[in-house]
Structure formats: structure tokens, C-alpha cells
Amino acid sequence: MLETGSYITALLSYSLAAVIALLVMVWWLVKLGWGRFWIALLFWLGAALLLTPAYANMQADTFAPAVLVAVFQTAFFGVDTAIHAIRPLGVAMGIATLVGGTHGLIWVWLGRRQVNMEQP
User: What is the extent of the structural domain holding 88?
Assistant: First the structure.
């Protein structure tokens, strides 16, 4: 097990890497010309996928990224042991879909509103 200081450092490092990956993804999608709605939706889904925590196993008292726990628990022990990570991941993805869709629609609406205001 990790000591408290190294555990916090590891979580902060992973979180920072996830945020940087999300920002790079957004930059890349903008450069590819994807629409505002899809960029917002994919950002929130990526954030939910990368940043949702779960206990490493049923007896653990430390967190790990839920996607990693779900993948490894499913691969090595089966879906029944991974359900404790799959449930919060599913809830986070559902909430991210709602938030991302709302964010995307507002972003598209504000963009169209600006274009209409600029035209005489």
C-alpha cells in the first residue's frame, strides 16, 4: 500500500494528466472542425470516464479510477466483482450525458445568437 503522501501525489498526478488529456482532446476536436455540441458532450463524457473514482476492491479503503478498476476486475475476476466500480461509472456517464448535452445546446444557442447579433 501507498503511504498517505504518495497516495495523494499519485491521485493528483493522475487527475492532472486526465485534465490535460481532456484539454488536448478539446483542442484537437476544435482543429478538426467538430461542432460545439459534440465537443461539449465528449468533454463531459471524457471527464466522467477519466475522473470517476471507485474503491480498488470491495475491502479496500483507497480510491482508484473507476474505469481502471472496472476493466481489471472484469478481466481477472469477472463482472460480479467489478459491479462496485461499474455502477458509479454508469451513473457518472449518465449525468455527464445530461450535463454535456445541456452545455452543448447552450453553447450552440449562444453561438447562433452572437452570429445573429453581428449581422445587420
Answer: 4-118
